[in-house]
Amino acid sequence: MAFYRTILKKLEDWSQRERRKPLILRGARQTGKTTVVNLFAHNFDHYIPLNLELAEDRAFFTQFDQLKDTVRAVLFSKEIPENSERILIFIDEIQSEPKAVAALRYFYEDFPHLFVVAAGSLLETLLASKNTFPVGRVEYLVMRPVSFSEFLLAMNEQAAYEAMQEIPFPAYAQLKLLDLFHTYALIGGMPEVVEEYAQHRDLVLLKPIYESLLTAYLDDVQKYATRTNRAETIRFCIENLFLGGGKRIRFSQFANSNYDSKSIGEALRTLQQAMLLHLVYPSTDTRLPAIPNRRKSPYLQTLDTGLLNFFSGIQQALIGTKDLHEAYRGRVIHHWTGQSLLNNKHSPLDRLQFWVREKKQSMAEVDFVYLWQSKLIPIEVKAGKTGKLRSLRLYMDEAPHQLAVRVYSGDLDIHQMESQSGRSFWLLNLPYFLVEQLDSYLAWMEAKIKEE
To answer: What dihedral angle (degrees, nearest 10) is formed by the CA atoms of 267, 273, 277, 280?
Structure first.
């Protein structure tokens, strides 16, 4: 499947490293972890998939105290000679057996010739218990929803995809890319949704897929929760998650609930561990280290904009929209920008952040700040005239650099502006569909400035 190209390349890079460690593939349910490993397996002589939700596969780790006995039993059961080369072992739903998690360190130490990948949507629940991952003996790779460029490949839009790879992209491709982007932002990037739409181009056929995704997340509630009352709170949060996505929230008032702030906070943090959402906290810093202030209200970034559109009931209303900044009071394009910024990242440590200034008579908020080459780059998601970017101009009063970004539906360009105090800086005006290539365009911008 074309839309797994990026993650497959990262898996290939991992497999070619001489001192690789077992790889833990992380991500929310239904983001395609099992599918991508099955595709990756085509590069190997032998492939052993184990699903630890199945008793017979779990038994390999529960019946033996020594990993060497486990490995021998697995190879024997699959009729694979012990001296075989290029063996890929995939341990899916590894959180179902803590002994398997503990065994990962011994794969690294005693069986470095084996290629071991583990996955599980609920891995983070182990981190909160007495069981911990073997620190320093594993690597991590995060899977997120399908990006816009991967969507183009799934839609067989090869020319559009190739135009996007040019830096800067050719201006003649603007209208087509923007039109395709509107479709992508409408349906979102969940793999099953993208695959269905690419085959049939029918929005009606997507409804049961969205509903089945939410049902799958609700079915996992008992796995997330340790107490009955906590299960109820988590279920409530999942059911209302996408209604609250794309805006700042208060735990004490989340979805007009009667649950107390502590219960909602615990539930949302649990869902964040399961990668169904990100709680995006603000910082008041314009230079590193930018420490998030967790006493302030976070912005709720959910797993996928398509899910937000569907469960908020706005998907139909977005059809034919010419400028997504006007849709749903700007929530759709703001949420999608956050999703695209995360799609650039494949580490579990990566987080979104935004900037606030909460001084009397000088309140300001910048939509996102983005770490690039030791600089915190401010990003505004706007449709208005550049002269009205008041918050961004306030940010640039204090920033130790001269680079800023506006994400919008217009043309790609760079021009010089002044901060609120008259300090000169450079603004990159970036079309929505290029956000996933922000790193490349910041480098292009810097090179253009040097030429001037």
So the answer is: 90
Work out the burial of residue 393: count CB atoms within 10 Å of its CB; fewer than 13 is exposed, 13-18 middle, 19 or more buried. buried
* DSSP states along 190-215: -HHHHHHHHHH--GGGGHHHHHHHHH
Token digits of residue 120: 């599980």
From residue 219, give the alpha-carbon distance in Å to each of 12, 35, 241. 33, 21, 15
Rounded to the nearest 5 percent, the helix, strand and coil shares of the chain are 50, 15, 30
What three-state secondary structure class fits 370? strand
Q: How far apart are the C-alpha atoms of 252 and 240, rounded to whole Å? A: 14
Alpha-carbon span 366 to 355, nearest angstrom: 5
For 283-299, how does the pLDDT look when each residue is reduced to its tens digit (9 = 90+)? 999 988 889 999 899 99
CA dist 352 and 344 (Å) reads: 11
Q: Are strands 362-366 and 354-359 parallel, antiparallel or unpaired?
A: antiparallel
pLDDT 10s digits, 185-198: 989 999 999 999 99
CB 52 within 8 A of CB 100: yes
Gap between the terminal Cα atoms of the chain: 43
Please answer whether residues 432 and 339 qualify as being in contact, where contact means their C-beta atoms are separated by less than 8 angstroms.
Answer: no
